[in-house]
Amino acid sequence: MANGTAVAVRRRKAKAKRSGFLQVFVITLTVAIIGGTVGLTLLNKYFLDTNVTDNGKGYFSSSEFEDLPVTAEDIEILLPAKGIFATEFGSSKRVNTLLLGTTAECLTDTIMLISFDPQSKSATIINIPRDTYYYREGYGGSWLKINSVFEDINHPGDPDYCDPMATARAVQDLLGGVQINYCAVVTYDGVEKIIDSMDGVPFDVPFDMRYTDTGHDNKDDLVIDLQAGQQTLTGAQAVQLLRFRQGYTESGQKTGYAEGDIGRVKMQQSFMKATIKRALSLSKATKVINSVEENVDSNVKNRAMLYMAAKAVGMSMDDVHSVVLPGTSGMIDGLSFWKPADASVIEETMRQIYTNTLPADDAEETGDDADASAQ
């Protein structure tokens, strides 16, 4: 994880309510696990003083965060805005962080852009299905799925050649030129460790999930075996939940999400909310914060973390929304893809996000419900 430049911050002992700290922690955890590492290194380095880490008392108040000497000038730009984002929304103060959840095969299994609006104190998570069609000249087959952009075709599966910037440029292109400020990458091993640092996450698994893929080409076996119902998932079980797409029952009957990959995206959103709820119940956050810091790679600088944590004060989970890239599922040359909607439709969705006018019915999904890709 990028350490950034050390920032001298005025520390004042404060007798604050627990809720003030938790509000900030929940928002920063949301950004960290759903959309980057924003805020968690900040909390660990600047706000978890001895009183907090030793006995869970003496949390800093909201006013303490409001007084932080940081401004929007501390926000960097990874990819400058294009199109309407450079003209119509050129003065926007939004901070957009791209989260990539990657597999050992150098594929991006999770792609999310988190757009944080410090003025309205709200955030929208834009989910890009991993099977989204993204044309690249000279490529064909499954290489036209956006999850493969992260991988180098000349060095398949080699993490030394994985390129998050290539995925960032593809996401920017799909979303009409949206500015991207930061990028964060986390592997499934990292997710497992973060969830274990919370002692698991309570979650209602929607149906039995069973799948086995024997390792090949020096890749590990993938074994998924979860029973339906309410339970506390360990880190390893959480990874199984997040990776499952379709499988078979013991009797050989095919199982999976009725809405295909979009159903999987919705489940991931539900699990993330359960993770946030779990974080709220923790009496001490230090172990989780340290785990996120150790397991998420990001270009977010400390002063940017300070700025966003300060601006997130007062937010609640009601201010965090999710949408799916507009589109439909379908087949192309025998392969299943998520076909993005026309550029004008995507542009209108992004305009609604930037103007905080996204209809309530679209706050959790955008796109046709249809069967998507196979395992």
Essential attributes:
375 residues; alpha+beta; Aminopeptidase; 2 domains; six-stranded mixed β-sheet; 11 helices; 14 strands; 32% helix; disordered N terminus; disordered C terminus
Break the fold down into its secondary structure elements and pairings:
Elements: H1 18-35, H2 40-47, H3 50-55, H4 62-66, E1 95-102, E2 108-117, E3 122-127, H5 164-174, E4 182-187, H6 188-197, E5 201-205, E6 209-213, E7 222-226, E8 229-233, H7 235-243, E9 246-248, E10 254-256, H8 261-281, H9 286-295, E11 296-298, H10 302-311, E12 320-324, E13 327-332, E14 335-340, H11 343-354
Parallel strand pairs: 1-4, 3-12
Antiparallel strand pairs: 1-2, 2-3, 4-11, 5-8, 6-7, 9-10, 13-14
Q: What is the CATH topology classification name of the largest domain? A: Aminopeptidase
Q: How would you describe the shape?
A: globular
Spatial separation of the terminal alpha carbons: 31 Å
Give the class-level CATH name of the largest domain: Alpha Beta
Question: Would you give an account of this structure?
Answer:
Helices cover 32% and strands 20% of the residues. By secondary structure, the protein is an alpha+beta fold. The chain has two domains: 1-197 and 282-375, LCP protein (Aminopeptidase, 3-Layer(aba) Sandwich), CATH 3.40.630; 198-264, no CATH class. The protein has a six-stranded mixed beta sheet, sandwiched between helices. β1 (95-102) and β2 form a beta hairpin. α1 (18-35) runs antiparallel to α8, α2 (40-47) crosses α9 and α6 (188-197) packs across α7. The chain is globular and about 60 Å long. It starts with 17 loop residues before the first helix and ends in a 21-residue tail after the last helix.
